[in-house]
């Protein structure tokens, strides 16, 4: 039924979208590679288990039932709709119409499977629709606190609206397509939801229905391509990166903060009076402690930043944020990503070479010292994240830079460090008095 | 009270069963010293051969590490490891979750490999082994106790049940706060916050947590961390509730339950 012109359009749109999408995803990949190396290989079975439970199984989402169920519908709906997309691709490429349906013999078991599958997708899609409307109202009408924090002003709020509205747009398209198709064929396909909806088209002439069917088909397909291209610029990228992020999540206890081996070497030299310091390599890059910019973070921190979908469970659980401090773990992730984007585009415009821009991830409109200072390292943010992101890991690395490179510490902390060095305690007590408690 | 240092054990060619890591709060802070003594009374009562490092113990380096000063942390850690490895320390018990976390998780890659256990787990094991018997020396009957999860025990190391099991030994009702276990709200002390003023905000974190504790109507707030105890005690005081609500460490409560310690609640 499709003309050659339609096939031509279909293939050109697909190729164009593929090129733009490739560029977008490649950009994200390249930017993540700007981070420092960190070996997270090995433990494959444990990692696969984490992907299955946390990403596929959405285990951590279910700590909070209402959003978990709503999110599950959208997630599940998204996955099973891909089945219908297979047929759309074949039809578009070869100019056929519902090729799988027609290829299957009438009254066969396979035909029943086809009809059941499409009906099931339609059935789930109804819930996807309800969930999407619920999400829109939670965000923009009920105004759930975590979805209305200052860091979401501007593009992030728009991004969220774009994603949710495109979801509704896609649903309208696919239902128009199926319903009109059903009406044209007098319900021959036997689909569940469009079979009910088609009564709305009673009395319509076939040519108008065909226009609706074609419009639905094309708008749905173009919408899918547009989303594919938009995804790497959106917080919605979590639908892909969540799988990678849960795979590469650290397997150590949450309380563990990695030691810095470069410092161990120096301290061992310091503690051993007979040690001879290694010869200084004048050409070696100066050692920098902690992280000041995205380059100093691990690639996993950067993957975390791109995986974040800005749900704000971390921020809602953060004791500092709850008590009105500036710190918001979600903002830590968003700032890291935004700075990385800035660095990435500057690099791309400069032939892939980084030209110092006099800025960094600390201050400069990104993460402020005040935010970093407010963290109690309580791990509430890490515990909450449904896709195993660690804002705390970034906070600690940035704190290291402030203390060890910038000597930027509150006066009380400087006093504490001095006491620790001199008396082996964070207070000014003599080490000789350490056993005094037993005398009372 | 019987307290012997590792040096004394070594001098008499004896090996203690376990090293009791007292920590800075337990050594110097007057409130935490009481917890140290209560815990020692329990150990003494059971004739457990434990040692302390005494004047050879230094801060584990936790507040420096979490503040971002890896130099000070590693300097202290390497010193402590040197001391402990010289004595051949195998097993450590500590009443401080911060010491527990760092000794257990961060000392190994610096050469300090020990079997580290927090006193909540240690006490629970003694209870499970039938070694600790609560008497009616202190009557907890009719009292409500609420347990505050320490971040460094709970989320950091997934120890949620041990301290609760210890409290269940007492004849009191255990009630939970609005946020508990994995969702437990921090007391506000971690990450070296204990040692500096808060950043500007609407409220102090310890007040937010104390409010949750008071909402439970419990008259005893149980903690398993010296810093949490301090923060919550301050919170109770600043809400002017110190006559109705008392903050105790689980070791103090258990020692009182065995008649080894007198506490007023």
Structure description:
The complex is a heterodimer of chains A (440) and B (265). Chain A is an all-alpha fold and 440 residues long. Chain A folds into 2 domains: 4-247; 261-271 and 287-430, Fumarate Reductase Iron-sulfur Protein, Chain B, domain 2. Chain A has helices at 4-32, 44-56, 65-94, 99-103, 109-140, 155-184, 192-197, 206-230, 238-247, 261-271, 299-307, 313-317, 319-322, 329-348, 369-373, 380-384, 391-405, 411-423. Chain A is elongated, with a radius of gyration of 28 Å. The N and C termini of chain A lie far apart (95 Å). Chain B is α/β, with parallel strands linked by helices and 265 residues long. In chain B, 44% of the residues lie in helices and 11% in strands. In chain B, the strands form 2 sheets. Chain B has a 4-stranded parallel sheet. A 4-stranded parallel sheet of chain B has the order 6-5-7-8, with helices on both faces. In chain B, α7 crosses α9.
Task: Name its key features.
heterodimer, A: 440 residues, mainly alpha, Fumarate Reductase Iron-sulfur Protein, Chain B, domain 2, 2 domains, 18 helices, elongated, B: 265 residues, alpha/beta, Rossmann fold, 4-stranded parallel sheet, 44% helix, globular
Question: In short, what is this structure?
Answer:
The complex is a heterodimer of chains A (440) and B (265). With 440 residues, chain A is an all-alpha fold.
């Amino acid at each position: 039924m499709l003309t050659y012109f339609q096939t031509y359009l279909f293939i050109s749109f697909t190729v164009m979208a593929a090129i733009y999408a490739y560029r977008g995803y490649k950009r994200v990949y390249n930017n993540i590679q700007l981070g420092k190396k960190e070996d997270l290989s090995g433990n494959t079975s444990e990692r696969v288990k984490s992907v299955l439970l946390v990403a596929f199984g959405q285990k951590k989402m279910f700590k909070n039932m209402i959003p978990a169920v709503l999110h599950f519908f959208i997630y599940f709906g998204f996955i099973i709709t891909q089945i219908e997309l297979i047929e759309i691709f074949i039809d578009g490429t070869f100019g056929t119409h519902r090729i799988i349906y027609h290829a299957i013999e009438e009254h066969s078991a396979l035909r029943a499977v086809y009809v059941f599958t499409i009906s099931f997708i339609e059935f789930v899609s109804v819930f996807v629709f309800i969930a999407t409307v619920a999400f829109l109202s939670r965000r923009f009408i009920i105004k759930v606190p975590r979805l209305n924090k200052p860091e979401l002003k501007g593009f992030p709020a728009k991004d969220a609206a774009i994603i949710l509205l495109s979801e509704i747009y896609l649903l309208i398209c696919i239902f128009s397509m199926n319903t009109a198709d059903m009406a044209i064929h007098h319900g021959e396909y036997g689909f569940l939801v469009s079979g009910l909806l088609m009564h709305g088209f009673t009395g319509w002439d076939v040519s108008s229905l065909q226009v609706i069917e074609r419009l639905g088909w094309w708008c749905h397909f173009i919408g899918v391509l547009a989303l594919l291209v938009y995804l790497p610029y959106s917080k919605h990228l979590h639908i892909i990166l969540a799988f990678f992020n849960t795979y590469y999540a650290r397997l150590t206890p949450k309380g563990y903060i990695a030691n810095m081996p470069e410092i161990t070497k120096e301290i061992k030299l310091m503690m051993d009076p007979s040690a001879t310091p290694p010869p200084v390599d004048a050409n070696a890059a100066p050692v920098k402690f902690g992280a000041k910019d995205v380059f100093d973070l691990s690639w996993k921190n950067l993957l975390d930043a791109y995986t974040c979908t800005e749900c704000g469970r971390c921020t809602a659980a953060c004791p500092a944020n709850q008590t009105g401090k500036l710190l918001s773990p979600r903002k830590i992730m968003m700032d890291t990503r935004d700075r990385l984007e800035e660095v990435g585009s500057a690099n791309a415009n400069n032939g892939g070479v980084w030209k110092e821009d006099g800025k960094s991830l600390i201050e400069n409109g990104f993460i402020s010292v005040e935010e970093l200072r407010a963290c109690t390292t309580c791990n509430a943010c890490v515990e909450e994240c449904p896709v195993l992101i660690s804002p705390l890991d970034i906070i600690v690395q940035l704190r290291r830079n402030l203390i060890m490179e910038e000597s930027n510490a509150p006066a009380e902390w400087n006093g504490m460090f001095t006491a620790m060095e001199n008396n082996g305690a964070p207070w000014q007590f003599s080490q000789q008095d350490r056993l005094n408690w037993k005398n009372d | 009270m019987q307290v012997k240092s590792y040096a004394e054990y070594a001098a008499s060619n004896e090996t203690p069963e376990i090293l009791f890591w007292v920590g800075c709060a337990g050594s110097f802070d007057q409130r935490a010293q009481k917890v140290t003594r209560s815990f020692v009374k329990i150990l003494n009562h059971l004739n457990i051969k434990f040692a302390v490092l005494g004047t050879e113990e230094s801060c584990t380096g936790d507040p420096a590490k979490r503040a971002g000063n890896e130099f000070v942390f590693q300097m202290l850690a390497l010193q402590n490891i040197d001391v402990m490895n010289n004595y051949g320390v195998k097993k450590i018990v500590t009443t401080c979750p911060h010491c527990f976390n760092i000794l257990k998780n961060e000392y190994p890659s610096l050469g300090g490999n020990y079997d580290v256990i927090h006193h909540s787990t240690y006490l629970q094991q003694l209870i499970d082994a039938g070694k600790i018997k609560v008497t009616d020396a202190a009557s907890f009957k009719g009292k409500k106790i609420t347990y505050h999860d320490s971040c460094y025990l709970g989320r950091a190391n997934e120890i949620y049940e041990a301290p609760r099991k210890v409290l269940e030994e007492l004849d009191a009702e255990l009630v939970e706060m609005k946020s508990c276990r994995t969702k437990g709200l921090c007391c506000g002390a971690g990450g070296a916050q204990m040692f500096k003023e808060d950043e500007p905000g609407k409220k102090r974190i310890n007040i937010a947590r104390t409010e949750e504790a008071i909402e439970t109507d419990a008259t005893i707030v149980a903690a398993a961390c010296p810093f949490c105890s301090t923060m919550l005690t301050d919170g109770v005081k600043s809400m002017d509730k110190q006559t109705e609500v008392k903050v105790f460490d689980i070791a103090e409560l258990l020692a009182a339950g065995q008649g080894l310690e007198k506490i007023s609640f």
